[in-house]
From TrEMBL:
<feature type="domain" description="Cadherin">
    <location>
        <begin position="5"/>
        <end position="87"/>
    </location>
</feature>
<keyword id="KW-0165">Cleavage on pair of basic residues</keyword>
<dbReference type="InterPro" id="IPR027397">
    <property type="entry name" value="Catenin-bd_sf"/>
</dbReference>
<keyword id="KW-0325">Glycoprotein</keyword>
<keyword id="KW-0677">Repeat</keyword>
<dbReference type="GO" id="GO:0007043">
    <property type="term" value="P:cell-cell junction assembly"/>
</dbReference>
<keyword id="KW-0732">Signal</keyword>
<dbReference type="GO" id="GO:0000902">
    <property type="term" value="P:cell morphogenesis"/>
</dbReference>
<comment type="function">
    <text>Cadherins are calcium-dependent cell adhesion proteins.</text>
</comment>
<dbReference type="GO" id="GO:0016477">
    <property type="term" value="P:cell migration"/>
</dbReference>
<dbReference type="InterPro" id="IPR002126">
    <property type="entry name" value="Cadherin-like_dom"/>
</dbReference>
<dbReference type="GO" id="GO:0008013">
    <property type="term" value="F:beta-catenin binding"/>
</dbReference>
<dbReference type="GO" id="GO:0045296">
    <property type="term" value="F:cadherin binding"/>
</dbReference>
<dbReference type="GO" id="GO:0007156">
    <property type="term" value="P:homophilic cell adhesion via plasma membrane adhesion molecules"/>
</dbReference>
<keyword id="KW-0812">Transmembrane</keyword>
<keyword id="KW-1003">Cell membrane</keyword>
<protein>
    <recommendedName>
        <fullName>Cadherin-4</fullName>
    </recommendedName>
</protein>
């Protein structure tokens, strides 16, 4: 395409285009040479994406001034067959009744082609490629080539033979031209539906079965000992399901849930059959289709059969004819009173069985039941005010059991409605109160509580007793109504304290009951509002001013005594630590260690070898000594003697023998310390580092004076007595 202005010979012109496909999305689909005005397509175009474009061409001079008015350009994209037909669904499901006539509509399949539908590129045509199965004809169906409607083309559809057909459908464009057109396929599933063209029928005319009688009033299934071969139909689905009926009020038959090939036995349901009433039943069972037969079927639509049901007797549980049983009586009946007879009935009339009774639930343990006849008696006094009573009714449950095989039992509930009697005296309320010591400031409202019910409760009568006389002298009662009264002071002033005020309360029962209750009244001084003051509350507790002061003085005296005792104890402890001994240390003969601080003779007195007095580190010098030479302060080396073993449980007479044996063993044991009373520090002879002491001589003269021992204290008194006066003695 080329655009050109008539003025291009006079001036230089520049061409441009605007619009969708040029300077608007999609951008630069078209391009124009600004000098020659030739237009070009820059990329492949798809008609299915955009079928046409509207552009405007412009012509301006070199200065950008408009030379020509813009012109409109309409560009149409020519369609090409580049799209296959597409089915809406890949699988289509349809149905057709069996026995349908040729031309019966089945279903419609639809395919769409994106190409131009006004041209052959978008014109779709349909055809059937294959049919499976190809029975009874290979062409049971046909399809409208333009609309896609599938219809029957041949007779002979029978669900009993073929239930489903699978048809492959092809859609081709170019008006169905297989050489030039593009194609696609889809699957059509055609189901042959059943019609009611076969009536149901029983395979046998008579059936016998047995059934155990169920519990009374309980619905159960019949226990059929022989299969009840049901009435089947050749038809399938809902049309072929039979409807079984039985003209008897006690029996009903379950309905089958499938075709004849799946369900052949119908079970009967039994309701409350009693062997004692009927031992056998003769039934006529009728079966028919749920839907009427198809038009044109000349056959009976129902079938009948006879059923004999024999009832087998089983042990049934005893039952109470009246359950729950309600009786009414006054509370407080004495123990052993006969209330009623609560007996059960055994439905097994043809079985010789005994029924025994027992308690199953008796919360308060108030009742007894006779085990043989069911007679109910009281085991305790029945009290309507007990916690076991709900809405004036006491409930107990009893058990009745037979001796059948297996045994059976039933329960019954007895309800006792207790009528109230006036057996509870009223109680005064409140139990405590407070009032001002002067009248007319406040009063005490009193009432009463009664555990009984109307008419054995209010109105109540409140009165003060005549004894002691101080009660009526100090107090008075004013009646407000049938349930309330006021207690107030009669005198002008009553000393603060706690007073026990007795009040007689009488109810309205027949005969009436009364009770003398005591209310604790705290009398206290009050402020102008009639409220007890703090001091008044203390005084009302029963303590006067003098008593309070006395208590405080006692507390102070007690604290003072405790403080003095603590001070005395601390002072005594201090004196004990600072006190000196009363006797001289030299005269103290107790076993104390005394330090004398004696000085020696200097370094000359310490010039000796101390190594001779040290314990050797090894035993070599002992082992290497000649026989017969031994230090007796060392533990000898050798076998140790065996000491006697004390028995675990010694006899008292063996204790002395045991001690004597241990003593002899210790005396003969050289290894037992002390090894010897004589301690040898070294030995004389060859090799001894100590000098000989044989040159030392002791003085035997008798002129030694030992009187100075008397000055050495009590420790040397014994020596002074022995040596000090020897010549005189």
């Amino acid at each position: 395409l080329q655009i050109r202005s008539d003025k291009d010979k006079e001036i230089h012109i520049r061409y441009s285009i605007t619009g969708v496909g040029a300077d608007q999305p999609p951008m630069e689909v078209f391009n124009i040479d600004p000098v020659s005005g030739r237009m070009y397509v820059t990329r492949p175009m798809d008609r299915e994406e955009r079928a046409s474009y509207h552009l405007r061409a412009h012509a301006v001079d070199m200065n950008g001034n408009k030379v020509e008015n813009p012109i409109d350009l309409y560009i149409y994209v020519i369609d090409m067959n580049d799209n296959r037909p597409e089915f809406i669904n890949q699988v289509y499901n349809g149905s057709v009744d069996e026995g349908s006539k040729p031309g019966t509509y089945v279903m419609t399949v639809t395919a769409n082609d994106a190409d131009d539908g006004t041209t052959a590129n978008g014109m779709v045509r349909y055809r059937i490629v294959t049919q499976t199965p190809q029975s009874p004809s290979q062409n049971m169906f046909t399809i409208n080539s333009e609309t896609g409607d599938i219809v029957t083309v041949a007779a002979g559809l029978d669900r009993m033979g073929i239930q489903q057909y699978i048809v492959i459908v092809q859609a081709t464009d170019m008006e169905g031209n297989l050489n030039y057109g593009l194609s696609n396929t889809a699957t059509a599933i055609i189901t042959v539906t059943d019609v009611n063209d076969n009536p149901p029928e029983f395979t046998t005319s008579t059936v016998s079965c047995f059934a155990e009688q169920p519990q009374k009033g309980v619905r159960a299934s019949v226990a059929i000992t022989r299969d009840f071969t049901g009435a089947g139909s050749r038809d399938w689905g809902g049309m072929g399901l039979p409807n079984t009926t039985c003209p008897h009020s006690l029996f009903s038959f379950s309905q089958p849930k499938g075709p004849r090939e799946k369900i052949q036995h119908f079970a009967a349901a039994l309701a409350a059959v009693d062997y004692e009433m009927n031992r056998a039943f003769m039934l006529t069972v009728m079966v028919s289709n749920q839907a009427p037969l198809a038009s044109g079927i000349q056959m009976s639509f129902q079938s009948t059969a006879g059923v004999t049901i024999s009832v087998t007797d089983v042990n049934e549980a005893p039952y109470f004819p009246t359950n729950h049983k309600l009786i009414r009586l006054e509370e407080g009946v004495p123990t052993g009173t006969v209330l009623t007879t609560f007996s059960a009935v055994d439905p097994d009339r043809f079985m010789q069985q005994a029924v025994r009774y027992s308690k199953l639930s008796d919360p308060a343990n108030w009742l007894n039941i006779n085990a043989t006849n069911g007679q109910i008696t009281t085991a305790a006094v029945l009290d309507r005010e007990s916690d076991y009573i709900k809405n004036n009714v006491y409930e107990a449950t009893f058990l009745a059991a037979d001796n059948g095989i297996p045994p059976a039992s039933g329960t019954g509930t007895l309800q006792i409605y207790l009528i109230d009697i006036n057996d509870n005296a009223p109680e005064l309320l409140p139990k405590e109160a407070q009032i001002c010591e002067k009248p007319h400031l406040n009063v005490i409202n009193i009432t009463a509580a009664d555990a009984d019910i109307d008419p054995n409760v209010g109105p109540f009568v409140f009165e003060l007793p005549s004894v002691p006389s101080a009660v009526r002298k100090n107090w008075t009662i004013t009646r407000l109504n049938g349930d309330y009264a006021q207690l107030s002071l009669r005198i002008m002033y009553l000393e603060a304290g706690v007073y026990d005020v007795p009040i007689i309360v009488t109810d309205s029962g027949n005969p009436p009951l009364y009770n003398t209750s005591v209310i604790k009244v705290k009398v206290c001084p009050c402020d102008e509002n009639g409220d007890c003051t703090t001091i008044g509350a203390v005084a009302a507790a029963g303590l006067g001013t003098g008593a309070i002061i006395a208590i405080l003085i006692c507390i102070i005296i007690l604290l003072t005594m405790v403080l003095l005792f603590v001070v005395w104890m601390k002072r005594r402890e201090k004196e004990r630590h600072t006190k000196q001994l009363l006797i001289d240390p030299e005269d103290d003969v107790r076993d104390n260690i005394l330090k004398y601080d004696e000085e020696g003779g200097g370094e000359e007195d310490q010039d000796y070898d101390l190594s001779q007095l040290q314990q050797p580190e090894t035993m070599d010098h002992v082992l290497n000594k000649t026989p017969g030479v031994r230090r007796v302060d060392e533990r000898p080396i050798g076998a140790e003697p065996q000491y006697p073993i004390r028995p675990v449980i010694p006899h008292p007479g063996d204790i002395g023998d045991f001690i004597n044996e241990g003593l002899r063993a210790a005396d003969n044991d050289p290894t037992a310390p002390p090894y010897d009373s004589l301690l040898v520090f070294d030995y004389e002879g060859s090799g001894s580092t100590a000098g000989s002491v044989s040159s030392l001589n002791s003085s035997s003269s008798g002129d030694q004076d030992y009187d100075y021992l008397n000055d050495w204290g009590p420790r040397f008194k014994k020596l002074a007595d022995m040596y000090g006066g020897g010549e005189e003695d």
